[in-house]
Amino acid sequence: MTTRVDLDDVQGNVVKAYARYGLVVARYVFFHVDVPVAGRKFVADIVPLVTLGTPWKDLSKTPRVGTNIGFTYEGLRHLDTPEVTLHGFPEAFSMGMKARREIIGDTGPSLYHRWDPVWNNQDDNKQHVHIMVTIDGKEEKDLDSRYQEIQRILAANPGVSQLVGHRGAGGDNLPYQPAAALLSTKDNLGYPGGKEHFGYSDGITTTFFEGCGEDPNLVIGGGKPTGGDPRTPAGWAPLAAGEFILGHPDEAFEYPEAPGPPLFSRNGTFIAYRKLHQNVGSFHSYLDEEGARFPDGKEALAAKFAGRWRNGAPLVSFPTEESANRFVAELAPLQVKVWTQSATPQEKTRFAELSLQLVAFDYRDDTSGARCPFGSHMRRTNPRSALQFGKTNAFAVPGALSNRRRILRRGLPYGQVDDPTRDDGDHGVIMLIVNADLSRQFEFVQQQWMNYGNDFGLANDPDPLLGNHGTNEGRLGGGRMTIEGDVVTNKPPYFCNHMPTFVETRGGDYFFVPSLTCLRTIALGIIDPT
Amino acid sequence: MANKSGNAYALTVLCPILRGVPSDSPAGNSGQTYTALLRNVLQTLHVNEESPMAKVPNTYLCRFWVLSDVPYQGKPAFLEHLKSDYLVFSSNFHGELEPYLAGMWKALQEDVLAILWHCVGHEAVRDAKSFIEYVKKCQVTTTFFFNGSTDEPLVEQLKNLYLKQEFSRFAFENQGKSASELQEAFRGFVQRTQPTNLDGPTWAPGAYHLDRVEGASK
């Protein structure tokens, strides 16, 4: 039987990547609860604003703004959550992101001493961020009107304070973390303008699970591999809902670990919020210097890092820059027409065919990594069926080693790059990683796949783009990457050495994102764990 | 087949530890039992390339520990106890048992005697022959083990490991050179690393990082 998820009870940011619906600007706001009863009243006042997971069928009627809420472990404690319920939370959540730094690699350049002030208080390991409210909107004015509404709620509940201390264009003490899609007029795939600061199209694949209510076609490339043709729906199946939503069976046919009572955790989930700074100066200078030596040139090297060309075309299907450019040159204008609802039926069909090629692939024809390196960011973080290493039926299911390591990616870029030759400034990506089990999913991917390479036969080489390559000295770090050669064309392998750390953590924590039912019981203070 | 997998041998030895407190305790340790004293000896052994066992030819991986009792598995299992504390010596090595133990005696007889001093019947151990007899009396059959090693003698494996690391470094350092430059660099590499010379330069037994290997490029 297929899992049914009550989407009216799940928060909207869990099941929807808002940016795909045109909500491309955001503010992330954090609060501290001084007086529990005031905190509960604050939650009660926010609940009516919370955006639900109910599917948005009619795209012309999608809301202009979405609002969601989550709590740290200390936050729940300060909202009178019973001790027994608190103790039911998994250790990763109760410890918090900072205390898990050795596991997730937030060390060296990513150590919390360098984080935004809002994430550091005097007692470094104690969470003082209690509540996260995320506001996603179509335009700044939508955000601002919702933000002002929340300010009025805050003013009415003096036992709650808004935490300042986000670094940004306005200084080190912004009252919230702003974020916005980087709008690009060309090769804007994924969602409109879906670029990040290194120039890659981002957010192309969206993880698909049972009962999520999204377009069923997104299962292609977004679900779990079945062993069938990856270009067709038969090649994919939805992941179990319990991988992302508590209270539903997961890929092991069990309920994910969650605190009692069931009413408290069912339809909730966990989000890892991460502010990831991008060292654009180091990235560009490394790419320029190494790209000048790399036989296929700079753009090809950038593609080898990511597994996609910077225009979004996957290397495994488009091995040459020319083929990738040709593909995107046809796709991008069609996408603009589809998004602006000016496409003809023929154009819509062609768009659907082409956009499928962005995601409908696996690595069965590239078992040597000659096209898409084993160490590239995309192949590491979403191996599809590649961990079978070309063997058929190596496991009971092709994704046996990856189906329980999937995450949902939410969030947006933040800041602007004023000088692309410099690392400083405040620009990067706000990542919100949704998963039912922080330890098994997010932390595993971070520890084993981002900052270690053994699962891919790459010894201890980290992810080229997001790995921690140590503290950069003179724009050089300790990272290295092997780009596999090709025995067919007699192309030798290529080795990248002294890679600097391109991405550093600048803040974040783990949040419980409850169901609407749970939010109401928190607000009322009636959670009964007995 | 018990104890062996290919050329790898898995030795398991359980030597009963003397009961009680020795009358001639080492200075400063009076009142401690043989078990406590032995634990102290084992826990203060040097490790990695400093380990005494690094001197014993063909040792892949080994460990000494004190087994005080067996854990209770819960009902319906029986609650059982061992008759005494045991010194356990577990070693995976290349080749046959007797030559291996003879090599261990030759390299380490003082350490061996210092450890066995805590065990029942240690007085019988006087030379390589009596050491081998003692170990065989205390040997239990290893029925199941994971052989995490290739089938080669240790010196060959250490040279392999050294060459693999050095070659990887060579590839990083010389990429992009012309054929003649590459050939010249490779000649230098061969001259320095001496691939056919098992005596050196090579990976030191017990070493865990190339930087700790004598003669390796830094």
State the main characteristics.
heterodimer, A: 530 residues, alpha+beta, five-stranded antiparallel β-sheet, four-stranded antiparallel β-sheet, 26% helix, globular, B: 218 residues, 2 domains, elongated
Q: If interface size is counted as residues with C-beta under 8 Å from the partner's C-beta, which chains form the largest one?
A: A-B, 6 and 4 residues
Summed up, the helix count of chain B is 5
User: Largest sheet of chain B, described in full?
Assistant: 5 strands, antiparallel
Radius of gyration of chain A: 22 Å
Quote the distance from N terminus to C terminus of chain A: 31 Å
Shape designation of chain B:
elongated
SSE arrangement of chain B, N to C = EEHEEHHEHH
Q: Can you give the mean pLDDT of chain B? A: 92
Protein model, in words:
- The complex is a heterodimer of chains A (about 525) and B (about 220).
- With about 525 residues, chain A is α+β, with helices and mostly antiparallel strands.
- Chain A contains 16 helices and 15 strands.
- Chain A has helices at about 10-15, 35-45, 75, 85, 90-95, 100-105, 140-155, 220, 260-265, 280-295, 300-305, 320-340, 345-355, 375-380, 440-450, 515-525, and strands at about 25-35, 65-70, 130-135, 160, 165-170, 170-175, 175-180, 225, 235, 270-280, 410-415, 430-435, 480-485, 495-500, 505-515.
- In chain A, strands 1, 2, 3, 4 and 7 form a five-stranded antiparallel sheet that branches.
- In chain A, a hairpin with a 2-residue loop joins strand 5 and strand 6.
- In chain A, helix 2 (about 35-45) runs antiparallel to helix 16 (about 515-525).
- The longest helix of chain A has 19 residues, at about 320-340.
- The two termini of chain A are about 30 Å apart.
- The mean pLDDT of chain A is about 95.
- With about 220 residues, chain B is an alpha+beta fold.
- Chain B folds into two domains: about 5-140, no CATH class; about 155-215, no CATH class.
- Chain B is built from five helices and five strands; from the N terminus they run E-E-H-E-E-H-H-E-H-H.
- The longest helix of chain B has 21 residues, at about 155-175.
- Chain B is elongated and about 70 Å long.
